[in-house]
Amino acid sequence: MHQLVEYILGGALVATGLQSPQPFVPSVLGAFILLYAACTRGALSAFRLIDRRVHKVGDPVLVIVEIAAGLQPWVSVDNSSRLVIIMIALVHAVVWRGSSFTQRERRALADAGEPGDRSTEIGKKAGRAVGSGVNMVRKAQAARAARR
């Protein structure tokens, strides 16, 4: 969910920038948030470059950057865009605070064959049955071809 919210926040900032008379700050900030979300390992990631533990530390830094971008006086930004940037920073902070950044452990394939695992045993039996059936058909076809 955290990653989905970051995509939504980044998209909202890009959309705000596209409707703003001074689109640079919200558009660049939104594009950065979208790229940051896409590079973090998760269910919706595109590139899987950033570990979740790094993302946990990077989010507060990004929130500070968002607030600084909304309050900075150097690049011209209209007041409604500033307000949207600050509100998105606050939402991002709340989402970060309520998120769990633990990495799910995947079971190794070798562990799947534990004794007593019925699904693995059934799968192996099914695979053997199909393989035996294919071999029987091939032998029957070879015998027919040899008789001709």
Describe this structure in words.
With 148 residues, this protein is mainly alpha-helical. The chain contains 5 helices and no strands. The chain has helices at residues 2-19, 24-39, 52-71, 79-97, 118-147. The model has no long low-confidence stretch (mean pLDDT 88).
Low-confidence stretches: none
Q: How many DSSP helices? A: 5
Which band does the percent of strand residues land in? Answer: under 5%
Shape: elongated
N- to C-terminal distance: 65 Å
Largest sheet: none
Number of domains: 2
Calculate the mean pLDDT score and round it: 88
Write down the secondary-structure element order.
Answer: HHHHH
Count of individual beta strands:
0
Measured as a percent range, the helix fraction is 55-70%
Using the CA coordinates, give the radius of gyration: 27 Å
Structural classification: mainly alpha
Features:
148 residues; mainly alpha; 5 helices; elongated
What's this, in brief?
The protein is mostly helical and 148 residues long. Helix content is 70%, strand content 0%. The chain folds into 2 domains: 2-97; 117-147.
SSE inventory with pairings:
Elements: H1 2-19, H2 24-39, H3 52-71, H4 79-97, H5 118-147
Helix pairs in contact: 1-2, 1-4, 2-3, 3-4
